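Reading a protein record of the kind used here takes little practice once its layout is understood. An example of such a record is reproduced below.
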Amino acid sequence: MSTVSAAYGDAHPLQRTPWHRYRHSLWLLTTRDLKVRYSTSALGYLWSVLDPLVMAGIYWFVFTQVFDRIVGTEPYIVFLLSALLPWMWFNGAVADSTRAFLKDAKLVRSTMIPRTIWVNRIVLSKGLEFLFSLPVLVLFAVVYRAEVGWQLVYFPLAILLQAILTAGVALIVAPLVVFFRDLERAVKLVLRFLFYASPIIYGVSNLPSELHFWAAFNPLSGIFGLYRAAFFPHELDWFNVAIAAAMSVALLVIGLLVFRGSVRQVLKEI
């Protein structure tokens, strides 16, 4: 409670605009979550590196040592990590958003900060963990001498689009789970399906030509293409990016509408 209250009490009076209060509260809650998460773990920050590293290692072993891989581009570990790391941001944020209100129900009811903060802090904290894990990608790019092109400038655009997409989906999921508790398990199943339906262990270029058009309507296809463009320029498809941008903005608008229309009822339910 003191952390949240501080967001409204330590700013200079001339700076206490609604946006400043929102941004300050969001940052305080996000850093609190990260501190709690890392302080209760013996390895702390290293989990942000080990988790994606272990997953990437498993898929790398399966598709390069066990099976005769016909997907992806060399170096495959870089190809894999450049989509797996942002996927873990999306997956973790959406999965955790199912508990956004239920986990801190008392704080949500008793504080006067905008309720969207309780969802956006999850998106931001998972986004920061994604940034913390990027040294893994850099390390393997150096070790395997992956060529880095000027398309690296698209990386910030990919982060922006993913943040918009993830926030939109989380704002839809968070309030609905309060009314339909089984939705929490359903979201996990959908995310598991979406992992294989998204170009993570493979690229859009590996799909049959008749599926290229439909793959664009998974917004993660265009976003992952932007991430990969720095190392694999052929994975960048601007049609996919345009669809991803349109769908991300649309989902954010829908998320805000769903959230605002249900927040009063959510406060009664929790």
In short: DSSP finds eleven helices and no strands in the chain. The chain has one domain: 42-269. Residues 5-14 have pLDDT under 50 and may be disordered.
